[in-house]
Design a protein that fits this description.
The complex is a heterodimer of chains A (80) and B (614).
Chain A: E1 2-7, E2 24-28, H1 35-40, E3 50-54, E4 57-58, E5 70-75
Parallel strand pairs in A: 1-5
Antiparallel strand pairs in A: 1-2, 3-4, 3-5
Chain B: E1 7-12, E2 17-22, H1 25-30, H2 33-45, E3 59-63, E4 77-82, E5 89-94, H3 98-104, E6 109-113, E7 120-125, E8 128-133, H4 142-153, E9 158-161, H5 164-167, E10 175-177, E11 181-183, H6 188-194, E12 197-203, H7 213-234, H8 236-239, H9 245-252, H10 273-279, E13 281-285, E14 295-300, H11 302-305, E15 311-314, H12 318-325, H13 333-346, H14 350-365, H15 371-374, H16 383-395, H17 400-403, H18 406-413, E16 422-423, E17 426-427, H19 437-445, H20 458-461, H21 477-494, H22 498-505, H23 515-525, H24 531-551, H25 585-592, H26 602-607
Parallel strand pairs in B: 1-6, 7-12
Antiparallel strand pairs in B: 1-2, 3-4, 3-6, 4-5, 7-8, 9-10, 9-12, 10-11, 13-14, 14-15, 16-17
Classes of the chains: A mainly beta (80), B alpha+beta (614).
The structure holds iron/sulfur cluster.
Iron/sulfur cluster binds next to helix 22 of chain B.
């Protein structure tokens, strides 16, 4: 199935070539894949603290993904 | 005394006189920090029901024990008064260089009362104090004012001043320091204007001694090392400043759009961090000594964006992008940036004026306001209308006279207060409460009306600093909001900036305890606070502030939110969501130890050691 990864703020730099500007790109995921599986495939350093939404909403790492889901990911930097 | 000068400067503008007042270590501990010492003055000396624009109101410029120390972001002051916008309290936080130099001028606080006969400015140079004539500065904008004062006193003075908006008593007028930093909210600029006080200029090198400087410096080193490591990896706040936030709030559906009718804005990618960086950024800048340097000097070039948007300055920050941008349906970053420059030059709060103009745009589109009343058509997205109304508001000309009073008075005048997105008559910052229940409770109950700076639970509900929790959940939010209100009282009172403090000087992983903040305060002042007792000191301040509100006539009936938050969000990730305050308010009062009417109980005041103020 196809899901979307949307990288925000400084994580845009991890987007595949050609997608850095908008930061959103499609990936293939196995049926039943979870958020954690998707995150594991990203080159985010293990020491980073980051935040993610699924379709703009709060989610846990073990949430099962569905066709067309958008997972937004960004470093936990705070601000306001 | 360590960590403090132990001195306030008292200025009576009616008499044209000033004197020093000392305070003891005991007082500084009981009434903790900038907000603690200030509320002691306000509660003790003025009638909380007094007209905020009368000579009786106090304008207090207050630093904390960490202001002017090497603590990361120890560079803040607060402008504190009774607010003419809300009738509640104003405590507006600003950084830059001025707060550090205010402290080094030899005073922890400057308390101004009365009203000068003619415009004056206050000049404090290492405890030499002078009131100087400011007649020729009256009418000038904040940049011209600062330049003129520097020409008179020397380049090494720093200046906080009002622009035309404050002079003309716009209820959403700010006090601007160092040209680009704002103590923006709740109309503190109008209080200053009502006193005929154009500016405060300070200089000095008087620093309070630190109780244990070596221990202090080692806490600073450790925090700076962690921050530096994150900056090296690429810190969003260094690279984009707060302008990275629109992408986050838009993704979560809480980015105010069309006066909070929607939570996602189609033009977000044109007004976000990457756009600002690519087209407008000149260089990063920092408040005094700040290792994060999240501020940005920017320029809108005439040859690219046109003469009408051209300018140079700082910003826009996230809040400004949300209020002058998406809330008004404006996706033109050059125009938003120009509007930001104008607000700084004229001395206006970008949040309140943006959300007020957004309200006017909605009223225009609904046919409540006509072209004749406004003097022009004012649809959402009208960038030129935005710029014109900002100018008009500062001078109270035409329709700008209503805009200058904020959205609640504007919408009420035309019989539609429900279109004003405010709490206690102060405009919301750029987080829709329907998606962030802790923020909604914060806006409704804060002692200063809607404000993210009064206890930004978005740190955990949205940004996930420390721990990410569900913004939509109600469970646990009463306790969470209370904790963040107390924590942010502490940050304000200490003289710190939220951005670095929450992540590097508090312990976000362990319940956002004020870990290193406590160490720094103890090493600076020689106190022996624990995290718990320091939070309790902040809670004491918070309750004293609440008592001021109660004495001013506030109660449960005023702890409300804009009716818009009860309307289901029409679309986006939080489609159908409302904010139901009734699910949180009683629990919040219980957690606070207040009665069902929102009044602090005698028992809680006794526990906090402040029953004498009831
Ligand atoms: S983090 Fe940003 S706003 Fe805060 S003190 Fe540093 S430069 Fe100023």
């Amino acid at each position: 199935m196809q899901v979307w990864i949307r990288l925000l703020a400084t994580y845009r730099r991890y987007a595949p070539a050609g997608y850095e500007a908008e930061g959103i790109y499609p990936v293939q995921a196995a049926p039943g894949a979870r958020v954690a599986d998707l995150l594991a495939a990203l080159p985010i350093p293990p020491t980073d603290s980051f935040t993610f939404f699924v379709n703009g909403r709060h989610a846990e790492r073990d949430q099962v993904l569905h066709e067309g889901d958008v997972v937004s990911i960004f470093p936990a930097a705070g601000g306001g | 005394m360590n960590g403090w000068h132990g001195r306030m400067l008292r200025v009576d503008l009616t008499q044209g006189s000033f004197r020093e007042e000392v305070f003891t270590e005991e007082v500084a501990r009981k009434y903790f920090g900038a907000r603690g010492l200030a509320i002691r003055v306000l509660l003790g000396e003025m009638n909380p029901k007094a007209d905020p624009l009368s000579p009786e109101n106090r304008l207090i410029l207050a630093t904390g024990p960490l202001t002017s120390t090497p603590a990361p972001t120890g560079n803040r002051y607060l402008a504190i008064a009774k607010s003419p916008l809300t009738g509640a309290l104003a405590y507006s936080n600003s950084g830059g260089v001025f707060p550090t130099m205010l402290k080094r001028s030899g005073y922890d606080l400057v308390v101004v009362e009365g009203r000068a006969e003619k415009p004056v400015y206050l000049w404090v140079d290492e405890r030499r104090v002078e009131l100087r004539d400011a007649t020729r500065l009256w009418g000038r904008n904040t940049h011209e004012t600062e330049d003129a004062i520097k020409a008179e006193l020397g380049d090494d003075v720093t200046v906080a001043c009002i622009g035309p908006a404050g002079e003309n008593l716009a209820l959403i007028a700010a006090i601007i320091n160092d040209k680009h930093r704002a103590a923006a909210r709740s109309g503190v600029g109008a209080v200053m204007g009502s006193k005929n006080l154009k500016a405060v200029a300070v200089r000095g090198d008087l620093k309070p001694t630190l109780y244990d400087e070596a221990a202090f410096r080692s806490v600073v080193r450790e925090a700076n090392t962690r921050l530096a490591a994150d900056i090296k990896k690429g810190h969003s706040m260094r690279i984009y400043g707060t302008s990275y936030v629109p992408d986050v709030t838009n993704a979560a559906g809480v980015f105010p759009t069309f006066n909070f009718q929607l939570g996602q804005f189609e033009g977000t990618s044109r007004i976000n961090g990457p756009t600002l960086r690519e087209h407008f950024l000149i260089r990063h800048s920092a408040c005094y000594g700040c290792p994060l340097a999240c501020a940005r000097q920017t320029e809108v070039k005439a040859e690219i964006w046109g003469e009408k948007y051209a300018g140079r300055g700082e910003g826009p920050e996230y809040e400004t992008i949300g209020s002058l941008g998406s809330a008004c349906g404006i996706d033109n970053m050059a125009a938003i940036t120009k509007a930001n420059y104008l607000c700084n030059e004229l001395g206006l709060d970008t949040i309140s004026i943006g959300v007020t103009i957004a309200c006017a745009m909605e009223m225009f589109e609904k046919g409540i306001l006509t072209e004749q009343e406004i003097g022009r058509p004012l649809p959402f997205g009208d960038a030129d209308g935005l710029l014109e109304l900002i100018r008009q508001a500062a001078y109270r000309q035409g329709f700008g006279d209503l805009v200058a009073q904020g959205s609640w008075r504007l919408a009420s005048r035309y019989g539609h207060p429900e279109l004003s997105v405010t709490a206690k008559k102060q405009e919301f910052p750029a987080y829709d409460a329907r998606g962030l229940k802790g923020m909604g409770l914060l806006y409704a109950t804060s002692n200063k009306g809607a404000s993210h700076m009064a206890g930004d639970t978005a740190y955990t509900e949205l940004f996930g600093v420390g721990k990410k929790i569900d913004g939509l959940a109600y469970e646990g939010k009463a306790q969470l909001t209370k904790h963040f209100q107390d924590l942010f009282t502490l940050i304000d009172s200490a003289g710190l900036c939220v951005f670095v403090t929450v992540r590097y000087l508090a312990d976000p992983v362990n319940g956002y305890a004020p870990a290193q903040i406590t160490d720094l305060i103890n090493h600076a002042t020689g106190a022996d606070y624990t995290s718990e007792s320091l939070l309790q000191a902040a809670e004491r301040v918070y309750n004293l502030e609440r008592l001021f509100l109660v004495k001013a006539g506030f109660s449960r009936a005023d702890d409300t939110l804009a009716p818009r938050m009860a309307e289901p969000m029409p679309e986006g990730p939080i489609k159908g969501e409302t904010f139901d305050l009734s699910r949180l308010l009683d629990e919040y009062y219980v957690v606070r130890g207040w009665d069902a009417n929102g009044i602090p109980t005698r028992a809680r005041l006794e526990e906090l050691g402040i029953a004498e103020w009831a």
